[in-house]
Amino acid sequence: MAETETKDLNQKVSALEKALEREKAARKMAETLLEQRSREIFESNQSLQTQMNEAKLQQLQLSFLTGLSADIWNADSVNNIVQVYLRRSSEFLNNAQCMFFQLRDEKTHWKLSSVMELENKYQQNDIDKEKIKTLIKSFQVDALLEAVKDAGGESTLQPVIAFTDESSEFQYIYIVPIFDINDNRGFASYLYSDHTQIDVLKLQTVESSRSMLAVAIQRQLATVNLNNRFKELKKTYKKLDDAQKQLVQSERMASIGQLAAGVAHEINNPIGFILSNYETLAEYIEVLNNILELYPNLAEQEAQNKLNQIWHDEDVDYIKEDLKELLSASKGGLKRVQEIVAGLKSFSHSNESADLTSFNLNECIEDSINLVWNELKYNCTIDRKFDDNLAPIKGSSGQIAQVIVNMLINAKHAMDSGGTITVQTQNIDDKVQVAITDQGCGISEENLEKLFTPFFTTKPVGVGTGLGLSISYGILKDHHAEIDVQSKVGEGTTFTILFPAYSE
What we know:
Elements: H1 2-74, H2 78-92, E1 97-105, E2 110-117, H3 126-138, H4 141-150, E3 156-159, E4 172-181, E5 184-192, H5 200-208, H6 210-294, H7 301-313, H8 316-348, E6 357-359, H9 361-376, E7 380-385, E8 393-395, H10 397-414, E9 419-428, E10 431-437, H11 445-448, H12 468-478, E11 482-488, E12 492-500
Parallel strand pairs: 7-9
Antiparallel strand pairs: 1-2, 1-5, 3-4, 4-5, 6-8, 9-10, 10-12, 11-12
């Protein structure tokens, strides 16, 4: 019995030992799994922290680049672009002390031409400013350029002692080349007191932003050049406009010179018969004065006899009728002189655009015909086909008269044997049309294309300058008018001009 109990006890102990071994093994496995899982969680946390840091840095990079892009594209000068870049990059680099160097090539050496120091709100006191100024004055320009050259023209991080012999609390300088334009080079520089302040990834981001800055500067310089070019073109245009006005006036005066003899003749005719009428009128006045002297003594027979004798001998009844005709003819002659002088004055006046007024084209054409009539009257006739209800046009009547005069003279020159010049006006929708047709020699098709080219003329040497039609074309364009030419060799030519009708 005792032996049986011992055996059972041993079996139980053995079972407990085996259970304990199994539990130890399970615990060891659990500890191993726990350690492995803890390591995985730690590594996952580390990865997540790295990702968060990278995301935060990327967010800072994105904020820096987008903010920089918006600011530099809105800057209105290269100086403002540089200031924006310095401010933005300094803030991005944890408020690093920032400066801008501009160097100028003096042919024999490079010289520091200007320094822009960004006002840093994190500077401790005025002593910091003085230290920075002292450091700037001691900077060796050649060493700075050599360092950038060795870096292949890219940004470079260098020890401060490489550029100055002066002692300084700043240990490192990050140099960023910004521009190289003509004989000027610009560099942004960031100063660090020790290596712990330096974030390499941020420095790389600043380096990447250089291309954006270069494009903004080039764009601004292009804008400045474009503005300067525009100003030059504006000045050139003004000179050309002044020259055009002088050319128009010169052509106008040349036309007046050609018409001077004819105008003098036109004025001489009415003046001649006015003087003749004046002599006759003086004789009539003497007769009338004799009659008036007898008037107080009309009660006496002798005075009556003398009055009857004078009345009969001088044919006073005829004088009475002739006086009306003399005065009427003289008035007409004076009016003719007045019209010629007014037309000449209007034609020669260099009307400016500020003097544009509405006027009747029929009246302008009539004035032009009067002005050149002495040129036309001997072998040309004018067939007027005027629309009595012609709408007014707006512009310079003097300049339009010059165009009409040129057309009439050209028509006369085209008809060696004389002929009829037809001038027709009419309203066409919202336009006013004038057509001038001659029966002359016509214009060949190849010459029609060159008709309005300055100095081109088909007239013989000494007849015309070749400027009349080109200047007329310019005047019509200024008046927003259209001109068309139809011609057949041997049959004649028609110039058709369409003006915009003017309405109040």
